[in-house]
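Example 3.2
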Amino acid sequence: MAANLKTDIEAYVINKVKEKREALKLTQSELAVQLDLSDGFIGQVESSKFPAKYNLNHLNKLAIIFKCSVKDFLPNEPFK
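Structure, written as tokens:
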């Protein structure tokens, strides 16, 4: 069994993005196209089996796509 490849804060950010993606009824592929990323990237990010994750540039583009603040993807309090 592989160890979790994402930290708690990375998983939090990924889940927030996924919630917004699903609320807009966007598929992983549709979001990847809007981000100018490979077709499978979003699936790898959303899977615990891959180390892929969003970086700050991705979050900035996602905020533009979802018409929200970059801060909307981050927790209010730090993880300990």
